[in-house]
Amino acid sequence: MAVRAPKRFPEKKPGSAESTRVREKILLAFSAKAKRSGIRAVVMGELASELRMSAVTLYKHFASKDELVLAMVDAWALELAAIDALDWAKADDCSSALEVLLSWADAWTANLGKVAPAFFQDLRRDHPEAWHRYSAVILKTKQTAAAHLIGFLRPDINPAAAFQMLDDLVARAANPRFVERLGLSRREAVRMALSLWGGGALAERTTVLALSPSATTLRGAARGDQTPGPGRSR
Q1: C-alpha torsion 224→230→231→233, nearest 10
Q2: How many CB atoms lie within 10 A of CB 192?
Q3: What single string gives the DSSP state of each residue in the chain?
Q4: Fewer CB atoms inside 10 A, N or C side of the chain?
Q5: How far apart are the C-alpha atoms of 142 and 84, rounded to whole Å?
Q6: What is d(CA 215, CA 163) in angstroms, rounded to the nearest whole number?
Q7: Is residue 40 domain-shared with residue 112, that is, in the same domain?
Q8: Are the beta carbons of 199 and 153 closer than 8 angstroms?
Q9: Do 35 and 116 form a contact (C-beta atoms < 8 A)?
Q10: What are phi and psi of 209, to 5 degrees?
Q11: With contact defined as beta carbons under 8 Å apart, do 131 and 170 qualify?
Q12: Final residue before a domain boundary, out of 8, 40, 65
């Protein structure tokens, strides 16, 4: 009686569809945990267990945590590129230019709202190459916006100074501690910063943001009122 040879299954090559699916699964799980709790909070062995795979399998697809972080930043860059794909052709005057900028800000703050401050701290401190890639994406975003906005600036102000002030205003407005102290959402604060900048830097005065009840906190802060923000008591 002839012995039947064991059935052979094709090997799953690194570039196969199955391998790609597993890599995406690992990357999505890692990104979600890292953005929620910080990169340092993600333990590779625990991640493998949660994904019901061995650590050996995980490291077969990503040789190190650094490699996973780089892949995560590259994937995030594609998300941010989609946000940056704005229709600047619609910006034919100061008001419409500011509206395009506000649309970007809304999408950006919605994306940023999903990320814990610890994520950026860990990225900058522990993963310099990934931080450099992320910073390059952000720089490109700023340069794209500046190239479209420069034609709408007042002729009597320095463009470099105007864009540096815009950068500083938005960075401050997006700071979680700052917005918590003022009792604003990050979206409200960033929109207000852009509106204030547009009112002073653009050739035509534009007003695109009406003060909401919570935004009156900002006026009170400017006057020195001691209005407490969320989590603060008198």
Answers
A1: 40
A2: 19
A3: -PPPPPPPPPP--TTSHHHHHHHHHHHHHHHHHHHHH-STT--HHHHHHHTTS-HHHHHHH-SSHHHHHHHHHHHHHHHHHHHH---GGG--SHHHHHHHHHHHHHHHHHHHTTS-HHHHHHHHHH-HHHHHHHHHHHHHHHHHHHHHHGGGB-TTS-HHHHHHHHHHHHHHHT-HHHHHHHT--HHHHHHHHHHHHHHHHBSS-----PPPTTTHHHHHHHHT-----TT---
A4: N
A5: 10
A6: 24
A7: no
A8: no
A9: yes
A10: -135, 110
A11: no
A12: 65
Burial code (b: 16+ CB inside 10 Å, e: under 16) for 161-175 equals ebbebbeebbeebbe
Partnered with residue 199 across adjacent β-strands are none
- Which position has the token pair 């929620």? 36
Q: What is the pLDDT of residues 27-74, one digit of tens each?
A: 999 999 999 999 999 999 999 999 999 999 999 999 999 999 999 999
Q: Are residues 133 and 71 in the same domain?
A: yes
Number of domains in the chain: 2
Domain membership of residue 77 (yes or no) is yes
Residue type, 113: G
Statement to judge: residues 89 and 196 lie in one domain: yes
Q: What is the pLDDT of residues 156-171, one digit of tens each?
A: 999 999 999 999 999 8
Q: Are residues 140 and 49 in the same domain?
A: no
